[in-house]
Protein 1
Amino acid sequence: MSLDDRKLEVLRAIVQDYVETHEPVGSKALVERHQLGVSPATVRNDMAVLEEEGYIRQPHTSAGRVPTDAGYRLFVDRLTRIKPLTPAERRAIERFMVGVVDLDDVVHRTVRLLAQLTRQVAVVQYPSLSRSSVRHLELVPISTTRLTLVMIADTGRVEQRLVEMPGPIAPDDVWELRRRVNEKLVGQKLADTPLLVQKLVDESAPERRPAMACLASVLLETLVERSEERLALAGTANLTRGGVLDFQGTLRPVLEALEEEVILLKLIGDLEPSTTRVRIGDENEIDNLRSASVVSSGYGPGATIVGGLGVLGPTRMDYPGTIATVRAVARYVGDLLAQN
Amino acid sequence: MSLDDRKLEVLRAIVQDYVETHEPVGSKALVERHQLGVSPATVRNDMAVLEEEGYIRQPHTSAGRVPTDAGYRLFVDRLTRIKPLTPAERRAIERFMVGVVDLDDVVHRTVRLLAQLTRQVAVVQYPSLSRSSVRHLELVPISTTRLTLVMIADTGRVEQRLVEMPGPIAPDDVWELRRRVNEKLVGQKLADTPLLVQKLVDESAPERRPAMACLASVLLETLVERSEERLALAGTANLTRGGVLDFQGTLRPVLEALEEEVILLKLIGDLEPSTTRVRIGDENEIDNLRSASVVSSGYGPGATIVGGLGVLGPTRMDYPGTIATVRAVARYVGDLLAQN
DNA sequence: TTTTGGCACTCCCGCAGACAGAGTGCCAGT
DNA sequence: ACTGGCACTCTGTCTGCGGGAGTGCCAAAA
């Protein structure tokens, strides 16, 4: 026997009530708060089936029911109509983002905005270098043997690294190096640069070979290895919202996970689908976050995707609202980037 | 009547035991764990005096005693011998910092190191721009009306900002602008730049005046207004260490405070004395942190100070150990900066 | 004057029992 | 297939009752 419409309706009601009250919801309260048109007893039967199928469970005998991860999943997949943002929210977004000056600025404002609107922990990834192209490379002499390499990407990101040269280097040589790397790399996708950089070394005049090799290794580190590294975080305090009830007693594991950039990037960083994605509880591969849900989305100018953003909260969260907000903010940021 | 030596010794014992056990400490337990050479009754008399003077208090009648903020203060001021770092800790510092490549790298490693050694929340301020000098300014054309301004400071900090020009600007003009700002500003303390920037505008050729004015306003913003902005944070998860017992029930206010950069900068940022400073509980002006203590120190190459760092934890913390660690790390970072 | 032992008192904490409330499962009736 | 009724179970809360730890005070000792 499968789930007929009413059973789904019961599940929806359970999820909604539980999200709102944080308390196990019983059959009687359900029929009182929703127009189900049937008696508590009937609802109880439906609940028994839903529990059988793994969508809800009882914390203990003779308590109300609570949705399981699977229950939330079903709710999100089949029972959610995307609810449009309120005008107030739209206005909040506009107001928050007016007068941005900078990529840094955009990212920081966005992450705060997300945290504030969803009242949850927000994460925003900087535009991924691997999806950017080189706009310009600059070499600034610091001393006779040291340069600062500055790379500016088309997404607005600016990365810089110190380059320790093997020996003293003359201003003219710096010039020549700068000219050559720019000539070869500007306009290229960062993902494609490793081969080009290698070529640069190979094609160098012998007397410049060591310097170029040195520069090349830093270039590779900067462009490729550290590429995904940066992100911004806000709203940690929101974790304490529902008391310590959510997150099964302690937020320690969650806070620990939030400190690991690698983990966060994994959470919001797989950008294959251009749509919003929801990961519920156990669906997160990270052990520390098995009592958390993550709603994430890619963003970027136009239809392309250059980075990810999202929010993290208890599995018991307002999915329709959160999804709508994340999606709206992602789109807004994309538009903002497109203007530059 | 003032506090004789034994009473101070009793206070020290109370602080030490309480920090270790997290439980109110009574007279009997005290004489058992420390060689005070007197009976519990005597200790009780001393405790009565200490309580009278406000250094300790009872959570309720007939419980043991707990240090007050004033008690910790006295302990820190008069009863703390600085305990040297263990060799293990020294090694940890060395190991953590080997192979740094970058200012960003230094700061991030330092903050994690601090958090790990003290098992508390760590904060590290980037070298303050207002205490740095300009090493180089670079202008990179992005489009005909847009430049990216990159400033490199002698402390290694690199700041960048987008400059929106009033009209199209030719490469030669960019060159000229770059030459002039570098000529005038390189080597100058950032604190002194506002006047110089103004002069630059005034002395410009009329046809270049608007462009220079535009650049100048961004320069001022970058160099002066946003100057203290950056810092790094780590170890938030350590807040959950002592259960939720510390921080009177909820870490919410603490987490909120940690999200406000302004607040953090105020905590670690007043660098007048070159020594380590301790702020205990109520001594913090920020309401949200009245159940927290902050141990902070300035750091910088040689005897100068370019930024602050510190840790934040419950008032019930191991002050001698924390102070020693913060001081050692600050000195180490200073040495590291001196090498560049 | 300072220290000490003794003693009565206070308060917290944990435990057991009682009780109300909420919710369920099942069954017989519609 | 739905509903009303009923017995049952489990939680959370409140109560009362020692046990224990710790204090304050006092009178005696050093």
Protein 2
Amino acid sequence: MAGTLSEALVRKISVSNRLDRADIETLQTLPIQRREFRAREIIVHDGQRATQCCLVAEGFVFRSKSTPDGQRQILSLHIPGEIPDLQSLHLGIMDHDLVALTSCTLGLIPHEALKRMNAVFPNIAAALWRETLIDASIFREWILNVGRRTGVQRMAHLLSEMRRRLEAVGRTSGETFRLPITQAELGDCLALSTVHVNRVLQELRGDGLIEIDRAAFNLLDRAGLEERGQFDPHYLHLTPSA
Amino acid sequence: MAGTLSEALVRKISVSNRLDRADIETLQTLPIQRREFRAREIIVHDGQRATQCCLVAEGFVFRSKSTPDGQRQILSLHIPGEIPDLQSLHLGIMDHDLVALTSCTLGLIPHEALKRMNAVFPNIAAALWRETLIDASIFREWILNVGRRTGVQRMAHLLSEMRRRLEAVGRTSGETFRLPITQAELGDCLALSTVHVNRVLQELRGDGLIEIDRAAFNLLDRAGLEERGQFDPHYLHLTPSA
DNA sequence: CGTGGATTTGAGAGAAATCAAATCATGTGG
DNA sequence: CCACATGATTTGATTTCTCTCAAATCCACG
């Protein structure tokens, strides 16, 4: 059981890091507690002290912050294999919420276990550090997206990014991927109103760039979509070398 | 000479981390090469491979990304004691520019030296990791700022944040701090046009919240400004414990 | 087959951008 | 010490993208 949980983790980390057999075996010995969450359930609250990290085994989660007047901004979307609150290992107090986008299966890993592992296996520690740095790189691109791109560009960029990240962990089939997210939530990601999200999607559909069937996004013209969103994947740091 | 460079570093890291005497002495042995940069000079380019990290000893630098059509978004402002490109230690290829906001003095630290130090002193490695995590936390708040706040709120928040960070390293006097930045650059930080920045500043001045004399910002009504900007410093993680 | 959430459509309002130009420093060289 | 160049700030007028408000439709599920 713990094996299947660590499987997604190893696969994800291997995308951006070179792990040797010993590293992988060590990761597989991590004590991971399986737990299910319902869609929209808050997993960890802003301000809360965290004592464990959450590995996404199945489903999607997101991180978000809200203003005092109740406006919500989604900061990142997370896919299987990722540890969205890995930062809590050294930043005990949460500065944002961690929320289940869909019903999902998480693997809870005690901080203690991770710290012990990092102390003994510097190569793994470096890989985890690197994961948090890629996380930060995606935040930087997110700032650019929200700050400097039009609604259509933002959406095109987000979809291009999600396709690329999902592909890296084998969660696409062709140019199609599953991402159960409402238009209101897309608006919270992109700092757009729900109404505008709807019109933006219509425009992308009208231009033959995408097709949406339920939770399935089909990038009919991937190159065109990436161009529209000014998408350049180098900020994802998807190869172990770079 | 290397002493004065590492001084700022030790002071800054000590704000958010508990360093013992041995840690401090180790940091002071780091080989650091002093180098001056002119205002607006690009220190490291997006796409470039970095082999050293830049410690800000004196002056200010910023990180930015640009869209293909030439729109610039400033991602972060950095003050003395910070290492704005610490991420390059594990993310060799830059995903953004590092630019001198003012003329400044940097201390260049070879990646090699940092990696050797991290391997031997896990406490320092954890502290540096934590610094990059705080960096990411500030990005998250930056996303919220740009995505969900009005122009006036964004400006109030940015000024509140800079005051708080500068205070932590002893670079304020009362409610006044020096930050030589143009209104166009403030616009690039906040995703606002220069014209709008100007009007926003007038509003804050008109409400008696701030006063600006050249590069000196005086927060006449700090509490009022923080309230206007919905500023809550917990995301800065300024105490070693949390 | 009703029900509530999600999507879609229409119309009007608003925050901020853009365009254009004036004013205000700041610093340089004659 | 002043004329001039350059960059920064300020002001005014207009435009535009996106939001808000409101309501209709669609759809999945019990």
Protein 3
Amino acid sequence: MAKQKASQDTIKRLFLYYRTILESTDIKVVSSEELAKRTGVPAALIRKDLSFFGEFGTPGKGYYIDNLSNHLKKILGMDRDWEVALVGVGNMGRALLTYPKFKLQGFKISQIFDSAPDKIGKTCAGFRIKDIADIKQVLQKEGESGRMNIAIVTVPANVAQEVANILVDAGVRAILNFAPAQLFVPENVIVTNIDVSNEMARLTYFLSQEESEDKSQ
Amino acid sequence: MAKQKASQDTIKRLFLYYRTILESTDIKVVSSEELAKRTGVPAALIRKDLSFFGEFGTPGKGYYIDNLSNHLKKILGMDRDWEVALVGVGNMGRALLTYPKFKLQGFKISQIFDSAPDKIGKTCAGFRIKDIADIKQVLQKEGESGRMNIAIVTVPANVAQEVANILVDAGVRAILNFAPAQLFVPENVIVTNIDVSNEMARLTYFLSQEESEDKSQ
DNA sequence: GGGTGTGAAACTGTTCACAGCG
DNA sequence: CGCTGTGAACAGTTTCACACCC
């Protein structure tokens, strides 16, 4: 496979196309121009993105939605179920546990962990909270049946790296990190961060920017 | 202000620098090389990012942390408090209401809204939930005192655009959108999206990728 | 010496424009 | 004829390398 890698931005857009065409039940075929209208992504870029993975379109027609969604589903790895471990049963962790979209999209949180003695053993949204210290053992037993190599980290920032180390050691290959901390992991492990404060800061930067522009006029 | 705009990626990194130096209580001065170690961002890029906004460093020394954090705080608009409206009191909304980092960072959620009749009037985390229909009126009254132009949207995807329209009409200039939907807003309004499923899809794409590479070896 | 700030080079990602196909 | 797929132009971002300053 000498094919060069697609960028993270391309993958983000791919998912956006996927979600958008799933919602486009009003049509059977979609042109890049029409998809552009619905997603906000320029038509040329949509064609570039898609053509990177194959020739899914029909000249003169567009993209057949059934066909395209199947391809995208496969490319994004969403043509199967994934078992996910959640570490850190705070407010955010609980919110994700009950996030209804997950099930629909093939993500199944099947193990939850925390380190607080008063939480361990308790039940949350139907799951028994297990001790973070037992992660390796639990995931590896679990791993035989399913594919337990995605983890969601919703622990406080000061223990996030420690938790990440444990997860990597237990064979986790992909981490969705909600903690406001940079995680350092081996090359073969992928981390994506969701940092709410960072996104908020982007907004306040923008608003401050505008104000100082107003003044200078 | 003829200065060209900094990219969104630059702003993201700026916040990362800011957070990192706030945690770096062990030192008074930091070189771009040291900051690179702590953030994972290449030193040259750190210098480029910072030099875009001014000359904050001291040749031969590095960046004085007090000085740099003050500059970054100002640039990011975090040298003041911001009042934030939250729309949609579901699981995610509730998690954000109690997110402790917000207060520390100058974000204060001060109004919360929902459309469900059984929620309106109830109290959540110390706030009375108000009717989404009254947003304009409430925000504009509130707006006289503070700056009520940031909103967090945690409503279902199918009503997100409708809510965004109402918010824009009520004078909101910046939206943090958790709904899995593309929001179309006027030019002068900024939206940033947090899309958990999209981030998860990036992970499954990566894992699927790896598997097919393994096979081809 | 040591480290910033910055032009210039290298690279990456996006847009253009059109040949070619259905 | 309409729309895809794509090479080529363009734009934006990152890296390099070094002059200059403390």
Protein 4
Amino acid sequence: MAGRPRGVDDSVILRAAVEVIGRMGPAGLTLAAVADEVGLVPGTLVQRFGSKRGLLVALAARSVQDAGTLHERARERHESPLAALRTLAVESMSDVSTPRTYANHLAFLCMDLTDPELHEHALAVHQARGRAIEALLRAAVSAGELRDDTDTAALTGSVQTAIAGAGLTWALDRRGTLPERLREEIDTVLAPHIRRRT
Amino acid sequence: MAGRPRGVDDSVILRAAVEVIGRMGPAGLTLAAVADEVGLVPGTLVQRFGSKRGLLVALAARSVQDAGTLHERARERHESPLAALRTLAVESMSDVSTPRTYANHLAFLCMDLTDPELHEHALAVHQARGRAIEALLRAAVSAGELRDDTDTAALTGSVQTAIAGAGLTWALDRRGTLPERLREEIDTVLAPHIRRRT
DNA sequence: TATTAGTAAATGCACGTTCATTTACTAATG
DNA sequence: CATTAGTAAATGAACGTGCATTTACTAATA
């Protein structure tokens, strides 16, 4: 026997939480703020997720899923592997609109890093992205976009630190747009391995 | 004229605050925690810094000073410019001992980024480091360690994102030590510009 | 003794959480 | 078909806690 149907889906609540984090930062992520965003009351969120921490765990779990689908989509595109790589980097930041938004999301990520269970999820996201990047780099080698002697594993690490560094420095100096900065840094890292046109 | 002398200096309190941030993260940075660390009582800190935010501002101001002196020291060393650059990067992280510690400090930095006044300080630190890096890069060109045609301004940006990225990815995957990771990333960025031995 | 540093207790606020109650729906039953 | 029982979702008003801040007081110097 079904009871009263849910007014808002879990996914809507989690999206709202992401929104709140971007606007208010981790300290502003209160159950009241999230509940307000979706037209519920704080206690309801506790009942549905068990606790505030339960909501955070659900949020982290969703991030892992998202990272996976992002990977899928990037591979399905019919662009060149390197173009797909740049797109992947930019789209993985779809929640970020301003430097402050990025700073808030980053602060939240850091908060996760101090909690064992949440760190597991954050690491999973990071590794999923790493695998996606390396797959695209390999494809780029196969497609002749990168030199044959490219160490794709090492280059993957460089690309990831470039992406992370671009975001953080952008949050600090606030120059230009994030997509610009990401593309710049990625291209700089890739440059030595780009295959010259024959 | 002067009344009762202060039992603990401001600098000691600020150092304690840094310590607490590293251990507990921004959320754990309470006046009680800091006061406890130095053997005072929360109310005293409010009286001395005006408010909790006052303490944060003082902390940010001290970071700006520190960044400057770090620059000075790096230039005074009798090492090669590139060696000094690597040392500068490592020593600018002297408060960081574990990935978690770094994550906590980073989260605190991000917190600052959402406050206009604190962001000013954080930006000043970032720019001071940028100037130090560029000075060392220029010196490296003069000393023949880097190629003459090196675009030191552009390379400065790359080095800064490499440093930032190395820290963040290290906090995520927790592989190796931070100094190792920093040196690795910096060397990768510098590699294309290193002058071959004659 | 005048002045400043420090304390201890009190205040007020924001937050997560709990719980009795109400609402909205489904599934039996006559 | 109309009615009733059953159930899950949501509410709103508590409650307790942890925190920054205030206030009245004490301690230590010059």
